[in-house]
Amino acid sequence: MIVWICFICAILLFLALDLGIFNKTPHEISSKEAGKWTGIWVSLSFLFSAVIYWLYQNNYVENPDQLKPAMASMKYITGYLIELSLSVDNIFVIAIIFSSFRIPKKYQHRVLFWGIIGAIIFRGIMIYFGVLIINKFAWTAYLFGAFLIYTAIKMLFTKEDHEYNPQNSLIYKYLRKLTPITTKIDGEHFFVKIENINTATPLFVTLILIEVMDVIFALDSVPAILAITSDPFLVFSSNIFAILGLRSMYFFLANMLEKFSYLEYSLIAILSFVGLKMIFHDFVNLPEWTSLSFIALALLSGIIASIQKEKRSQKV
């Protein structure tokens, strides 16, 4: 329990420093700044695997699966890569939402900051119940696995036209019934007074939409990581590090997502792999390095293929 408290406090402390010091003044996040923070978060995420090794070696955290320290570190890294890869679609949707409501780039960081706070809370709840269900009812692993394969097949055969309009969504329409909404942006405020009535600004609307979309994406990502491990601390920590790096990744990749056209096939391969692993876990016991290698190879292949395609198109 102490380890959990220390981990959550450390995350909250950094988030407080982030909003109160590093990004106290609203400004447009440049690609260079975003790239730097992306590198920092990815490095910290991988370095935390050493902390995982130390915690499990000294039995400082509950170890329900009796994992050896090296195995715990490997499962953490595998889970982190899964979460990171599945965040790509989330980044694209966030970009569409910001564009739809014309949110200035200098205010996008604040929306994503509070979005991450909400994501941590909702992911924690989903992970808690996910672990509880899969440990209490082992047969649900087959349902989770089938759902992941269904998602992969749907991604493969559904041609996205990327014309999603957040203002036509049920969430937006329902939100309008709950509170008045203005198209006026007043600095970083989520609400403004109009004729003595609290009115939601586009920043608040985008925040709610991003939160809801994150929960929807978590329906895929949480079962995917549960295919790797049902250890609560490993699932939660890998999820949180992937979420914390999502902001900088958004500012770094938002304008380049179209260039990674083959990355979606990497996600399809990863979802199919973890889904099959979940279904056949009682019959086939793959070494953990196999999962890690497959996920890393799928991501690398998608990135290289996309870069090669972009180079060929530029030569034409």
Can you tag this structure with a few keywords?
316 residues; 3% strand; 11 helices
Description:
The chain has 316 residues and is an all-alpha fold. The chain has one domain. It contains eleven helices and two strands; from the N terminus they run H-H-H-H-H-H-E-E-H-H-H-H-H. The chain has helices at residues 2-22, 31-57, 69-100, 105-136, 140-157, 170-178, 202-226, 232-244, 246-253, 263-279, 288-315; strands spanning 191-194, 197-200. Helix 2 (31-57) runs antiparallel to helix 3 (69-100) and helix 3 (69-100) runs parallel beside helix 11.
- Largest sheet data: 2 strands, antiparallel
Overall morphology: globular
Mean pLDDT over all positions: 82
Secondary-structure content class: mainly alpha
Please bin the fraction of helical residues: over 70%
Rg (C-alpha, Å): 20 Å
Helix and strand arrangement:
Blueprint: H1 2-22, H2 31-57, H3 69-100, H4 105-136, H5 140-157, H6 170-178, E1 191-194, E2 197-200, H7 202-226, H8 232-244, H9 246-253, H10 263-279, H11 288-315
Antiparallel strand pairs: 1-2
Helix pairs in contact: 2-3, 2-8, 2-9, 3-7, 3-8, 3-9, 3-10, 3-11, 4-7, 4-8, 5-7, 5-10, 7-10, 10-11
